[in-house]
Amino acid sequence: MKKFLLTIAAFAAFTAANAQETYNYFDPADCDADGWLWFDTQAKLDKYCGYTSDFKIILSGAQYEGNDGQYADCVLDGTIVGYDKEGNQGGAGSWTGAIITPQAKSYGSQNGGGIILSLPDLAEFSVAMSADARIRQMVLMGSKEAGTAERIDMGIVTGFAFPFTSLTSDFQYSWNNLQNLKNQNTGLTLASPKGTHVTAGLFNDMTSEVLIQGIKVFTYTKTDYPEGSGVAGIVTDDSDAPVEFFNMQGVKVSGDEPGLYIRRQGSKTSKIIVK
Q1: For the stretch 236-257, what's the b/e string if a residue is b when 16 or more beta carbons lie within 10 angstroms of its beta carbon?
Q2: Given the DSSP bridges, would you call strands 259-265 and 252-253 parallel, antiparallel or unpaired?
Q3: Apex CA 155: angle with CA 60 and CA 177, to 5°?
Q4: C-alpha distances in angstroms, 87 versus 93, 145, 154, 203, 210?
Q5: According to the 3-state scheme, what is the secondary structure of 2-54?
Q6: What residues contact 93, with CB distance under 8 A and at least 6 apart?
Q7: Measured on CA atoms in the order 121, 44, 73, 85, is the torsion positive or negative?
Q8: Computed from CA positions of residues 217, 215, 174, 29, in that sequence, does the dihedral angle turn out positive or negative?
Q9: pTM score, two decimals?
Q10: What was the pLDDT predicted at 146?
Q11: What are the structural domains, with CATH classification, of the chain?
Q12: Three-state secondary-structure class, residue 271
């Protein structure tokens, strides 16, 4: 018995020694005791969310023109009240504050708004959402090559591929450990060992707005926590600042090809269409 107990103790010590330390991708001062960043203040939203790669959460608007000829943007609202599991806005257990992602054009069209994270590596990725409709499907994307993103197979990430298995029948859902979901064709997962870059994206695939109300991201590499708005190196004299263009995935591009872009000059950003 003594030998067995010593073996167990040695194994436990080995496991502890080889466990990788993880770090909250967001400032722990902004997160709860479990590591969740809740968007319950406008200050948090403005600190972490924006349309360029300077932000830790890169916003992506709808990928189709609405009836007004515009591409709907994500909206940051630290006061909006979300829905409980039964669909009651402000009901028991509902959350406050959200990234409001615009709806997809039609069921399964995969062109609604969402969020993108460009991470040094990834140990854990979870998202808390609510909507005025059952959250049956969302689009998960990922890549381990900078500037690209592969859709995680929706036959594994429930909610899109035939036979259209619902992600959840609830109006409020905490989708945990997205890093473990696997593309059944390529084997891609978002889980990434220390030092292996990963791009992770989550997009609205419903015909209702989806409120992304909280997020939990842990990495193996410690990153800096943004101050103020979260934008690095803002040039205050906008008229003299260089003009930069980013695609809707937050990747810096030339802006020469026809398409929809984010134009940034200094601290000012705007959407433009190049024809």
Answers
A1: eeeeeeeebbbbbbbbeeebee
A2: unpaired
A3: 60
A4: 11, 38, 25, 20, 12
A5: HHHHHHHHHHHHHHHHHCCCCEECCCHHHECCCCCEECCCHHHHHHHEECCCC
A6: 84, 85, 172
A7: positive
A8: positive
A9: 0.76
A10: 57
A11: 20-223 (2.60.120), 233-275 (no CATH)
A12: strand
C-alpha closest to that of 245 among 225, 267, 264: 264
Apex CA 116: angle with CA 141 and CA 60, to 5°?
105
pLDDT in tens, 130-172: 999 999 888 888 887 655 554 544 333 433 444 456 788 999 9
Rounded CA gap, 223 and 171, in Å? 33
Q: Give residue-wise pLDDT tens across range 34-81.
A: 999 999 999 999 999 998 878 999 998 888 888 877 888 999 999 999
Contacts (Cβ under 8 Å, ≥6 apart) of 115: 49, 57, 58, 59, 60, 74, 99, 101, 201, 202, 203, 212, 215
Q: CA–CA separation, 73 vs 96, rounded Å?
A: 20
Q: Which amino acid, one-letter code, is at 34?
A: D
Helix/strand/coil percent split, the chain, to 5: 10, 35, 55
CB 115 within 8 A of CB 178: no
